[in-house]
Amino acid sequence: MFKFLTYNIHKGFNRYNRSFVLHKIREQLEAVTVDVVFLQEIHGQQLDHQAKVTGWPEEAQFEFLADQLLPHYAYGKNAIYDKGHHGNAILSKHSFEKWDNVNVSRFSWSSRSFLHGVIRRSEHGPPLHLICVHLEFVGFERNRQLKILSRYINEVIPHNEAVIVAGDFNDWSGRTGLRFEMQSGMREAFRQSLGEHAKTFPSNRPFLGLDRIYYRGVELIKCNCLSGHPWQKMSDHLPLYAEFSL
What we know:
The protein has 6 helices and 12 strands. It is α+β, with helices and mostly antiparallel strands. The protein has one domain (about 1-245): Endonuclease/exonuclease/phosphatase (Deoxyribonuclease I, Chain A), CATH 3.60.10.10. The longest helix has 18 residues, at about 140-155. The radius of gyration is 17 Å and the shape is globular.
């Protein structure tokens, strides 16, 4: 059994950007006990915040979380600016056989990519492909990015190998996600289990299902949206949790 969690951490700040809550996020992630965490909006570097924000870690945010949580990590930059960069990260209990950050951006002012890593539970065990995404707000651009992702899954990943795709899809209506399922042959955990996508945004009164966990080649055991205290007082998104059998 494999346990997964996906979470847009809002760069370590609470939903109003008033408090730095990365330490609280780490405490809660430790308590959940998972094998893999997909993270979006996570800083690799932010020199202004490092100098001014109390409690800002000296290392990258994904290293800070991995230190107490999961020992192996991969990071892919999405946005790069003068004082730093942020993007997607995958933390894992198992080491990465390989990983790659695939750029799907068309505009310099809105950089997006998806992070693809491969792990194995044992040296000779089957590979498990992990893809962390954070897609564009604008519908037509989000559709284009999902077409690229679907083509990538179909052409790069062997059809007999397991895949988990998780992250912030920014799919307000759900229509883009349905097209992605048809194009990629994957299923969404909450839609399969509960009949609809989990409501994750905004965290205090969630009514939009922006975050997703898609899967192929594994069996869904259960899934859950982590809501209520203290999750609703941390990021502007709620995290999603799922268990799979390989």
